[in-house]
Amino acid sequence: ENVDLQKTAFLLRKAWTLYSVTPLYRFRRARLRDYARLLSAFIAAEKQKGLAVEVGVELDIKVAMSSLPDLRGTEQDQAAILVQLSSRSRASSRNSEDKLLWSGWFCSVYGDDFSENVPESFTCLPLFLTHGAESYTAMVGSWFQKTFDCSFRRLAISPLNLSWMVAMWAGCKLDRAASAVELIFSVPHLPQSLDISYAIHPEDAKALWDTVQKTPGEITQEEVDVFMDCLYSHFYRHFKIHLSAAKLVKVSTVVASAHCDGIIKILHSQYLSGVLMLLTELAISQIQ
Amino acid sequence: MDETVAEYIRRTVLKIPRDEIKTMLQKWGFLSEAQLQTLNFHQLKDNVSQEVVQLCEENSADIKQAAVLDIIYNHIYQNKRMWSVYQMKKSGEELEYFDITDFKKKFKERLRSALKNVTITFKEYEDNAIWIRVAWGTPHKKPNQYKPSYVVYHSQTPYVFISASVLKSTLPLLCQALIVASNYHDIREMELRSHSLNSLKDIVFKRYSQNFQTYNPKPLQGGNVEPQSADLRIVQENRSEKERIHRLNREVFGDGPQPKLEFAQYRLETMFKSDPKIDVLDKKEPFRCLVKFSSPHLLESLKSLVPAGMADAPLSPLLTCIPQKARNYFKIKDKKGFFPEGFVSP
């Protein structure tokens, strides 16, 4: 874990919307400042065209782009790129602080298998995470698409992947008190919709996972299936409801929470790398 | 007129949807029909409420009248609040004649002896429901009119429905005043909560259609049943299974509409038992879970689970007992000595 805690504090406890991004063509890390200026001009032009985000208030949007060398898996990974949009209201005084409006960052954590097979002129940062208004995301995405010939796609998280996450994270050992391991299901196609929240005491969930997992540090699909089957059958025993037939919509643990619409919240820096690695993998499989 | 009263009336009127304002003011009866005629309801609501306040000024409204308007609003929009159910216990079997005047007097006395600054308002409705509104103050501050408690008491029953103030410390005092005023000796909170006050009443007063055995020899009709196919055997099996499910559902849920609840919560403290083929967790400690079911109409939703193939018939008694047990919060432990197909909930 070579991650500098201070530098990554910004990404904890925020809900990030996930996208997969195809490799960026002729992206030059040395030109980040230039890119920031170009993006800024692009956004200003978009607003003048009438695609304004804020109605009424005059906002100068400032763009900052930076490199995060510690946010990566191995040296083979590209370092993460952070893009931030801030505003300084023209009406306010010169001393006023910039208000952070939107953040987005590109990253690759243990994505070497993918980047190995990509030509030199391309930069691989397959995972894109955003926080802030959708309209800003659209503008930033649009500029990157035009400039680097890449494409973005929302990264949905399937119930299969959600169950991987909950199994993995339920087994995490933490120094501090853990919150419940929660699975949220929705039962579609009923005349009256039904949501089911199944929250397990973190110690008990971890105890269950520990008896299921055979090799520490390694997780197999079979182990995840057994873990989930155990949870489903304990539930069935009480309620006679086939939870496996319901749609797993969200999972939440002390480490992180993930929603099937492709929204993630990382709560603890201790397992940051593991979470990002899993997400990078999902992004890569969506691209391929 | 006190400007805090004026402001309170103004804000209460603002809450009312435009089309309802006139009716509600008429129900209130504080402004005359002539005064109501002078109001222009087709302007901005801000202006309507200002005009209402002016009329109230003419009539010198005080907080007591304003509180009545608030009860009327909350009676009509009762489903905006969360209601809990309390049950009172009598020491003896004495049938006492309920005297409303006596009740009100004792209730006010009990509260005022403990707390000088309270606003207490009563309103009786046709269905024998007594609505009580209490706004709470402190020895040094006037009552906060914006965080009152509401109580609905049907005097022929031991049940009280409370939408408590967010000022939680006031609840014990409220409960005490209720038992003193109604001549009961104890009150306990039931594990039953919902936004739908009427559904709560349906459940505790047993006004919903309860499950009873019905002999239903007619085959199932309607769109559920597959059309006849060449292979008669398949259709027959399917039909009889669907009929069986339909019949079991009727036995369990009854025929009529279900009371409207939004959620049920189960705290499970039962042992984890897995398929013996899988070598997993076999602790001596319970597997602690908290399960919460939510739906715009929970019981209807549960009723549809078996026909939808999501659950096996008959549906678990943990779910079907909700109206009979009059609770939607449960704590489930293993029954001692039994193989854990049986559960107890204390």
Automatic annotation (TrEMBL), chain A:
Keywords: Centromere, Chromosome, Nucleus. InterPro entries: CENP-L. One of its GO terms (cellular component) is nucleus. It comes from the Eukaryota. Coiled coil: none annotated. Its main location: nucleus. It holds the Pfam family CENP-L. It is found in: Chromosome, Centromere; Nucleus. PANTHER family: CENTROMERE PROTEIN L (PTHR31740). Belongs to the CENP-L/IML3 family. This is Centromere protein L. It comes from Dasyornis broadbenti (rufous bristle-bird). The lineage of its organism: Eukaryota, Metazoa, Chordata, Craniata, Vertebrata. The gene is Cenpl.
UniProtKB/TrEMBL annotation, chain B:
The keyword Transport does not apply. GO terms for cellular component: chromosome, centromeric region; nucleoplasm. The keyword Cell inner membrane does not apply. It holds the Pfam family CENP-N. InterPro entries: CENP-NAC/CAD_complex (IPR052011), Chl4/mis15/CENP-N (IPR007902). It comes from Dasyornis broadbenti (rufous bristle-bird). Its main location: nucleus. Belongs to the CENP-N/CHL4 family. This is CENPN protein. GO terms for biological process: CENP-A containing chromatin assembly; chromosome segregation. Keywords: Centromere, Chromosome, Nucleus. It is found in: Chromosome, Centromere; Nucleus.
